Amino acid sequence: MSSGRALSEVRILPATAELLSEIHAVEESCFSSPWTRKMLEAELTGNPFAHFLVAMSHERSTVRAESTILGYHCFWIVFEELRLMNLAVRTSMRRQGIGRALVTEACRLGMEQSATRAVLEVRASNEPARFLYTHMGFIQVGRRPHYYTNPSEDALLMELNPLVCPGTRQTERVRRSGGESILPDSL
Fold first, then answer.
1. Which domain CATH number covers 85?
2. Which of 4, 20, 40, 114 is most enclosed, with most CB atoms within 10 A?
3. Lowest-pLDDT range of 8-12, 99-103, 117-121, 182-186
4. In this predicted model, what pLDDT tens digit does every residue of 103-128 receive, in sequence order?
5. How many whole angstroms separate alpha carbon 40 and alpha carbon 187?
6. Residue 186 maps to a domain
7. Could you tell me which residues come within 8 angstroms of residue 168 by beta carbon, excluding any fewer than 6 positions away?
8. What range does the domain containing 33 cover?
């Protein structure tokens, strides 16, 4: 790991309004067209469908203990659908399982609230994110031309249907024609 921080030292917690400045700093460092602070605040405090999680590192020093946001995830749960909106992890903390932990917790919460599928859009050129989602069981189901700006780029529409909690044996399913999912043992 680049920072020497073990994933076991990372906690996934609900975000609070007090963390908005730090969330916004992560947002600005990760995206070419970041959400504004006002947009993040509206999602965090005013959207009844929106949920925010933060990945926090708790570092101890001899003087005081300090928490740092390593990443965050904004997602919506709207009836039977979990919609992954924004996932951001500090550049120095990528490829350490933080994004996966945030998405896994969002899926768990979605299932807890009766969501049956998850959907997201991802930049076509964002290979690390596409790799993460594919390895969590998402499949590409469409393309949205010129969805993103700065630069203009297509979005890939990805879906996890049925919604399962990534990392469980359920994600080791095989897709048959017609979209049916089955577990390998039942082949």
1. 3.40.630.30
2. 40
3. 182-186
4. 999 999 999 999 999 999 999 999 99
5. 45
6. no
7. none
8. 7-176
